[in-house]
Amino acid sequence: xxxxxxxxxxxxxxxxxxxxxxxxxxxxxxxxxxxxxxxxxxxxxxxxxxxxxxxxxxxxxxxxxxxxxxxxxxxxxxxxxxxxxxxxxxxxxxxxxxxxxxxxxxxxxxxxxxxxxxxxxxxxxxxxxxxxxxxxxxxxxxxxxxxxxxxxxxxxxxxxxxxxxxxxxxxxxxxxxxxxxxxxxxxxxxxxxxxxxxxxxxxxxxxxxxxxxxxxxxxxxxxxxxxxxx
Length: 230
Hints:
mainly alpha; 6 helices; 72% helix
């Protein structure tokens, strides 16, 4: 017999190379199955990569939030930055949405960039913050104080060198003129040193008057104490 007997398990279309047209459908089926398997593998790999990217993005988001919270607190509490200035504006939100619209990779890249920006901000904020501006009364006291000390020194010198009979006259002249002179010099000095800006300089006249009159009170108390002891 020239024909071979086919077994019950023989696959249709695989009788031999001599059968014309029988191998075509089977080869097409095998090629389609291979392509389907390749597509399935690629889809599974892409899904796995996308899941890994989303997990990394969630970790980056948690890290960025943890980094921004103390920075926001320091800016508001220590540096006095308004809360409204730290709130994202509609234009910023629209730009951020456009940046991450392409997929998880773009989201992860944007979060990594945000973390880098937060790291740079931390590096810039290391160390003590800028010193708060002085209060006007404390700043002006540095000017009124030396003039008041000069008044006290002059009064003590005059008390020591003045004749005993002319002491009330010197005390009256010094007690009226020198505090006014010290106050006027302090007033002019504050305007000269801290003036020149668009805002009006606060010279704190009450603080200046108290500072310039304090030497007179101290001198009177000293003279009275000496008189009481003698």
